[in-house]
Amino acid sequence: MARWSMVIDLDKCVACQGCSIACRAENNTPAVAPDQAQLGRAMRWNDVFPLPVNSSEETGVYPNVTTRYIPRPCMHCENPPCIRVCPVGATFKNSEGIVEQNYARCIGCRFCTVGCPYGVRYFNWHKAAWEAPMEQHLNPDRVEDPGLLEGPAVRPLGVVEKCTYCIHRLKKAQAQAEAENRPFRPDDYVPACVQTCTGKARFFGDMDDPDSTVSRMIKSTRAFRVLEEVGTSPKTIYLREG
Amino acid sequence: MALTYHPYNKNESVILDPLLRRVTARDLILWGGLLILFGLGVYAYLTQWFSGLGETGLGRPVYWGLYITNFVFFIGLAHSGTFISAILRLAGAGWRKPLTRAAEAITLFSLPFGVGSILIDMGRSDRVLNIIFFGRFQSPLLWDISAVSLYLFSSIVFFYLSLLPDIALCRDRLTNVPAWWQKMYRLLSLGWTGRPEQFERLEKVLDGMAIFMTLLVVTVHTVVSWVFGMTVQPGWHTALIGPFFLVGAIFSGTAAVVIVLALLRRVYHMENVLPVNLFNYLRKLLIVFTVAWLYMMLAEFLTTGYGNLADEMPVLWQKFTGDFALLFWTMGITVFILPIIIFIFLGKNNIGWMVVACISVNIGMWIERFLVIVPTETRPRFVSSLMDGFANYRPTWVEIAITIGLFSGLALLYLIFTRFFPIIPIWETTEDSETVLLTSENHA
Amino acid sequence: MNISAMVLTFFTADGPGGMVVISVVVVASAVYFMLIRYILRGGEHSRK
């Protein structure tokens, strides 16, 4: 079985936010009104924001600005603090290392959202709605089974959602391979953000395969994990500038 | 016709008086007012039910706010009854006897509102049974639910058993009340006839349950604190959080008992049944608890501040000098400075001052619960504070109306209870010299 | 009989948590029912 990982090269990232927009379109994440965004309800499964995150740290004065930008999907940790605290198993890690979110079971307690140290989880404060004619252009892909609903499916009210490494694309690719009677190749599957990245800064693959791009990049001296000291072992790995 | 034995209590008529009072206009206004406030809370909740939790002021990263504060506060309030009843019973503190039922009633009625607060906070409370079907015992919420359910159930039984002989007394004494009311006493008294063996067994079981309830008090509030303590978030993930919550709960609970007792004493003219020396005993306990609470705060903040860890300090400064400074120092004054001054210098033999101090304590403790929860959420490790809409939590009318509704509901339930059942235990507060038993007919 | 695996499954699987809550409530109900009956039956037979 594969162990999916994403590598983001910050040297190549220009913070164009194409990844965020691709993610939003691919996963049917509605935009929120400005007043809702002011309340912190904007939903960005993939978020691009400045580092340092907190105003007590220095950002520098022009031209010696030290701000950098970082695109952040879900870290899909190997030791996720979010799944530990879920009371109903609505979020869980599958055998391929993807931390899934089941909208059909979530009770909206938001324990996982306060438990995640990276802040990658979002909540449906209102019923998802789009301005006309956007609702006619939703991605029809669904990952659905009895008692299971995840991925791009339009979320019901009151549940948690987050980046899934485009698990619907994985399922589609696996189904395709089976239908075509051939083995599934890791190259068949790529999340929307990786596919769209204008700077070709994002990479995706199986970190258990020593020959994959991501495996080779993870061995780079530029590679680092965010909040490594917390012990979550994130699988979204960054290459620092330089 | 069976005969029932009731221990003679010279204060019986005073204690039973509230049950025999006629409903006055003032009563109706009070109950009506509380009911309206409760109704407003229900209306606010329905708004939230249909539109979603977007009706609150919550947003990333402050995903938990007033509702979880209320949850922790009400569960803490519940510890008052168990402390007075169970722990002081084990300590053999006889002076506690008149207070036990009034205190336990606080426990009994505040627990459902605590549990209700969680249901109110859930995004999908219609799916609450998922916790039973798919519950994961790795989650602190499951520990919470198990402990609080057991605590609620045990409190009901403990309360009911302590009340049982007095229900039988009401059944036999209050023959002039309406038939439906009489029937309620008959049903609930379970055929109690007051035989010495029954009393013996009752005392034995209450002693055993007192030990169990004491263990439960420690377990329940520690487990509630672990909802926060078991995460990795700065300000929450501290080993001290269990004892911290426990001390706070017993502190605010005991202060609540003082307020309730003072009210009962005034409204139902129970000066002889609830003499000032009871309040003096509670005053001494409260001085100990106030200082204990200060110890907890010092231990927590000194340790955090001295360590100067990069993740922890932003949360600490948020409380001391940041967005929550006003609330934090208000809390310091209302929970510690004002009460300790009043308790030590003004509270002896002065119920009025005791009530002022205890109201101050409870307001401050509610703020303290809020300050445990929200400041940590406003300084997450990896969410950008430079983005729009970061951590500007302001509760909306929905949250405030629901909070007020919960407190009104508690007050209303309590008030109604005092009109149907004696709030002071009659069978437990008989004096030792009165060994003569009065009998009355059991209309079986 | 891999005990450690069983314990791990008990804590992490979906369902056992709910069973604990139900068991706690059921056992408590049974115990309290019997205790109340025990109390009420005190001295029942000695008088007959």
Notable traits:
heterotrimer; A: 242 residues; alpha+beta; Alpha-Beta Plaits; four-stranded mixed β-sheet; two-stranded antiparallel ribbon; 12 strands; globular; C: 48 residues; mainly alpha; elongated
Quick structural gist:
The complex is a heterotrimer of chains A (242), B (444) and C (48). Chain A has helices at residues 18-26, 34-38, 81-85, 111-115, 167-179, 192-196, 213-218, and strands at residues 4-9, 47-51, 68-72, 91-93, 99-101, 122-123, 143-145, 148-150, 160-161, 202-206, 223-224, 236-239.
Describe the structure.
The complex is a heterotrimer of chains A (242), B (444) and C (48). Chain A has helices at residues 18-26, 34-38, 81-85, 111-115, 167-179, 192-196, 213-218; strands at residues 4-9, 47-51, 68-72, 91-93, 99-101, 122-123, 143-145, 148-150, 160-161, 202-206, 223-224, 236-239. Chain A is α+β, with helices and mostly antiparallel strands. In chain A, the strands form five sheets. Chain A has a four-stranded mixed β-sheet. The radius of gyration of chain A is 18 Å and the shape is globular. With 444 residues, chain B is mainly alpha-helical. Chain B has 14 helices and two strands. Chain C has a domain at 19-48. Helices cover 73% and strands 0% of the residues of chain C. Chain C has helices at residues 3-12, 16-40. At the A-B interface, α2, β2, α3, α4 and β6 of A face α5 and α6 of B.
Rg measurement of chain A, Å:
18 Å
- Helix share of residues of chain B? 55-70%
Question: Which series of helices and strands of chain A comes N to C?
Answer: EHHEEHEEHEEEEHHEHEE
Low-confidence stretches of chain B: none
The secondary-structure class of chain B comes to mainly alpha
The largest sheet of chain A is:
4 strands, mixed
Number of β-strand runs of chain B: 2
Give the helix level of chain A as a range of percent: 10-25%
- Total domains of chain A, how many? 1
Number of helices of chain A: 7
Work out the count of structural domains of chain B: 1
Anisotropy-based shape of chain A: globular
| Residue-averaged pLDDT of chain B | 92
Global Rg of chain B? 23 Å
Q: Describe the strand arrangement of the main beta sheet of chain B, using strand numbers.
A: 1-2
The multimeric state of the shown protein is heterotrimer
Amino- and carboxy-terminal Cα gap of chain B: 7 Å
Order of strands across the biggest sheet of chain A?
A: 10-1-12-11
